[in-house]
Amino acid sequence: LTPKPELTSDPAGAALTGNTVTLTCRMDLSTGWDFYWYKHTPNSETKKTETNSYRVKIDSVSDGGQYWCRAGRGNPVYYTQYSDALPKAVVMVRPDERVFRGETVTLRCDIKWGGDTEWTYRWEIERTNYQYKNSVSRFSTQEWNISSVDHVHSGKYTCTGQMGTQSSQRSDAVTLTVS
């Protein structure tokens, strides 16, 4: 199985103009790897480093966008998988992913490494209720409060963020189960 590195940033949540952000390509591999950094698309190489960190100075909006990393070594080069991209959407559920009918549930979409910019959010819900099995809903608020959940709200929730032409990576799915 080809290893897949994890891309993290420091600071974790700020990608504002004027900041310097350090991206780190984390993985549990032996030494001797070079690290490859990509911006906007995974196949457009921007930088090769011998260490697993890369500093990005955010001088303008054009320095924003999605970033990926992967590692490689040897000749010909053997590459790991691409990391997930930053920025990435993350879904949080309060109080829990497993709730009872009638409870209040809040779903929130946050953009990891997205800065304090104005994002537009898109949610997708894959319903698990047998009556709504294949229906998908879309709505555009960052936070969604369901004051009295019912079985119809059970399903897999994902979100993405959009800001102009830039979009975040889709979040991992969160499964809401209503008993």
TrEMBL record:
Alphabetized Gene3D superfamilies for the sequence: Immunoglobulins (2.60.40.10)
Chain ranges of the Ig-like domain: 5-71, 87-175
Keywords, in A-Z order: Disulfide bond, Signal
Keyword Signal belongs to the record: yes
InterPro entries: Ig-like_dom, Ig-like_dom_sf, Ig-like_fold, Ig_Fc_receptor, Ig_sub, Ig_sub2
Chaperone is among the record's keywords: no
Record Pfam families: Ig_2, Ig_3
Protein name in UniProt: Ig-like domain-containing protein
Annotated organism of origin: Cirrhinus mrigala (Mrigala)
